[in-house]
Design goal:
This protein is α+β, with helices and mostly antiparallel strands. Helix content is 13%, strand content 23%. A hairpin with a 5-residue loop joins β6 and β7. The protein is globular, with a radius of gyration of 25 Å. The N and C termini lie far apart (95 Å).
Length: 210
């Protein structure tokens, strides 16, 4: 058997074949979070990322494109590859209530509990579900849950909501503005206002069972 002839390259040419190595710094320290965690409530890089701060302990960030650079998304086909939106819910979509299954079926993941800014009022619609409305005066902070929802599933969730509820922009206590479930003003006419309870869950807990 004859050896395959090869051409000897000069040191300069050999170096040209070696791809340039980008300097990405020292990398991330520590152990990664479990990849099978079904509903992470903290950033997956918390404790490893040198740019982390306190908020990273409480919520999973939404994946966004870089405004002044190339758009980067996770691998195609992964759950995170879908465009996600934040949705603040204040009633029966919350954990432990009847319509929470609609969020889970749409692939939504829980992010955090918080409240709105002090600009909202809340009504009980026949004690079946609440309706929250933004007001200019006499408002209060209303308890909400923030969920991360695949944009493709948002319409399905809305179609499963009771009549008279809709999606609009909601301002949270920390100033963040996100999508949220709101009620049409006409829906609240003749209904019981429950703003003083600060949320649907406290109202249900305090409501007489008889």
């Amino acid at each position: 058997m004859h050896a395959i002839p090869t051409r000897e390259r000069s040191p300069q040419r050999r170096r040209a074949w070696i791809p340039a190595r980008e300097d990405h710094g020292s990398g991330l320290n520590g152990e990664p979070r479990s990849p099978i965690d079904p509903a992470p409530t903290v950033c997956r890089f918390y404790g490893r990322c040198p740019e982390g701060f306190d908020r990273c302990r409480h919520e999973m960030p939404v994946l966004r494109s870089v405004a002044d650079g190339p758009t980067r998304w996770p691998a195609t086909g992964s759950k995170e590859s879908a465009l996600n939106v934040r949705l603040a819910v204040n009633g029966t979509l919350m954990r432990g209530f009847a319509l929470n299954v609609n969020l889970l079926a749409a692939g939504a993941t829980f992010v955090r509990e918080t409240t709105t800014g002090p600009s909202y009022r809340l009504w009980s619609i026949g004690d079946r579900h609440p309706a929250m409305i933004r007001v200019a005066h006499g408002g209060a902070a209303i308890a909400v849950e923030v969920w991360e929802v695949p944009a493709a599933g948002l319409a399905t969730i809305l179609l499963g909501e009771p009549h008279g509820l809709c999606v609009g922009k909601v301002r949270l206590a920390d100033g963040e503005e996100t999508l949220g479930v709101l009620g049409e003003p006409v829906l609240c006419e003749g209904q019981r206002e429950i703003t003083e309870y600060g949320g649907w869950r406290p109202y249900i807990t305090a409501r007489p069972t008889s």
